[in-house]
Amino acid sequence: MNVSDVGGDESLVPPLTVWGVAMCVSGTLITTENAIVVTTILATPSLRAPVFLLLISLGLADLLAGVALILRFLFLFCVEPSDWSELLTSGVLVTSLTASLCSLMGVALDRYLSLSHALTYGSSRSRRRAAVLLLLVWLGACVIGAGPAMGWHCLGEPNSCSVARPLTRTYLSLLCGGFLLVVMVTLQLYAGICRVARRHAHAIATQRHFLPASQSYASKHSSGRGFSRLILVLSVFVACWMPFSLWGLLGDASSPPLYTWATLVPAAGSSLLNPILYSLRNKDIRKVLVQCSNLKSSKRVTSPSA
User: Which Pfam families does the record match to this protein (predicted)?
Assistant: First the structure.
């Protein structure tokens, strides 16, 4: 929704809509969910492997996306809309989506390296490399997100607008082209994961006569579950990111705004699904959360007698 869409006096705050309520609720859920994940990892000294650094980065990026949605709601329905608020929320959202997508690529790279270099990956050297990589990712995301505030906007030239105002068509095309490149690289990494997993499964199959029957069945069952989870992750990843990446390249300012929202909502919705697919399914993180929950329950039980 743009400032120009509000009828009458532009100084009036527009009335609250269903879309506004949904924006506020989803932003709050995304922020809360990812804050829990980030706090849990940071507060647990044992969670310092490269994968947890990547999950912290992913959680921070998605948390920032939730904050961007809340800010967008506040600037649209609680205070008088202005150009600077549009530039601020657009920049924060671009930064968060860029960092989130690059972090997802980093998670795929981590899974590939942990399979192909199982004996050496996870050392302190690998953690330092992951930290440097994430620092570069966030620096790049912040530079890209600063584009609207640095002049890559169409507030003064409506004809140069893209499907996502106030971003220019050139800026959004470059952004979506980069998104597609990251998506393709991530898919290639997952294809490599499948190849490595098949080689491991073949190596296990050739040694089946050395294993007990129950252990052989357990290995096969675990492998099947692994591929099912991989297919689920890939399906959600492509469904969330591919529509907006393609629409940003193909659409223009004359296209119906509904199409833009229909493709942008899944991209933002990935911030709600990522903690479930990548962090809360991790057994180490789940163990910490269960321990915290049990500790709180025991305190509630003992507090009356105290």
Answer: 7tm_1 (PF00001)
